[in-house]
Amino acid sequence: MKSTIAIGMMLLVIGNLFSAMYDVSIKWLPGGSSAATFLLVRQLTSILMLLPLWLAARKPTSRHLKVHLLRANTGAIGALCLIMGLIALPIATVSSLFYSAPLMIVLMGFLFLKETVTAAHWLTAILGFFGIIILLRPSELNWFGVAVLISAFMFAINQLALRKLPSTESPIVTLMLYNLLSMPLVLVMVVVQGIEAISGSLIAIAVLSNVFLLAYQWFCALAYRQAQASQIVVAEYTGLLFCVFFGWLFFDEWLDGLSWVGAGFIVLPSLIIPWIQAKRGQKKFIEQNAG
C-alpha cells in the first residue's frame, strides 16, 4: 500500500511541474485576450494532437461516458476561470488561491466517495479556509480571484471523478474525451464572450500550453488511480512552489507579506500535519512491538 502511495505522489509532483509550466504559457497571452477564444483554440489543437495517439492505440473507447461528460464540462468551466485569472493576476497569487483545490478534494472525497478524513484533515481544511480569506482580502475583493476559486472547485470535482474510472482504461481515452465532450460548452462560451481574431502567436501558445496540460493530465490520471485522493493530495502543493519560482523567474512577480501568510495557512498544515501523524504512527508501532 505504501509503495502505491509513494508512486502516486511522485507522479503528482511530476505532473505539477507541467501544470506550473502551463500557467506560465498562459501568462504569455497579450493583456485583454479573449479567454474563451484561447480555450477554443486550445481544445481544438489538443484534439488534433491526441488523434494520432488515439489511432495508434487502436481507437480505445470507454463505457463511462457520463463520468467523462461530467469531467469535460466542469473542466471547461474551470479552465475558462483559470485563464481569466492568469491573464489578470500575478501567477503566484493565482497559484496560491488555486491550491485550495486539494482541501476541496479531501472534503469532497469524504462527502461523496466515503474516503476517510481524520481530525487533522479537518484542521487543515479550516486553516486553509482562513488562508483563502487572507488571500482574497474581502475588503478589496477581486472577482478574478473568485474565478480562480471556482476553477479550483471544478478541478477538485475533476480529480475525484478520476476515481470513478477503472485503472484499466487507457489515459488516451480520458484525455481525448476530456477535450472532445466539452466542445459544445466551449462554443457557447465563445458566443457569449465574443470571438477574438485568431493569430499565429495565439495558436503557438495554445499548442505549447497543450503540451504542458496534456502531460499534467496524463500524470494525474495515473496518480489518482494509485491511491485514495486524501492519501496523495498533499503532493499537489509542489505546484505552488513551482509557480512562485516561475513567476519570479519569468515575470518578476512575488507574493507580498500578507499573501505569504495566506499561502502558508493553505499549504503548511497539509505538509506538516501528515508528517506529524506519520511520526506518531511509527512511534506507536515501535512501542507496540517493544511491548
Please provide a written account of the structure:
This protein is an all-alpha fold and 291 residues long. Helices cover 78% and strands 0% of the residues. The chain contains 13 helices and no strands. The chain has helices at residues 2-27, 35-56, 65-88, 91-98, 101-112, 119-136, 143-161, 171-180, 183-193, 200-223, 229-232, 238-251, 257-290. Helix 1 runs antiparallel to helix 10 (200-223), helix 2 runs antiparallel to helix 9 and helix 3 crosses helix 8.
Shape: globular
- The structure class reads mainly alpha
The main pleated sheet reads as: none
Radius of gyration: 19 Å
Helix content: over 70%
Order of helices and strands: HHHHHHHHHHHHH
Could you tell me the mean pLDDT? Answer: 82
Q: Low-confidence segments, ≥5 residues, pLDDT <50?
A: none
- How big a fraction of the residues is strand? under 5%
Distance between the termini: 26 Å
Q: Number of DSSP strands?
A: 0
Q: What is the number of helical segments per DSSP (H or I, 4+ residues)?
A: 13
Topology of helices and strands:
Blueprint: H1 2-27, H2 35-56, H3 65-88, H4 91-98, H5 101-112, H6 119-136, H7 143-161, H8 171-180, H9 183-193, H10 200-223, H11 229-232, H12 238-251, H13 257-290
Key structural traits:
291 residues; mainly alpha; 78% helix; 0% strand
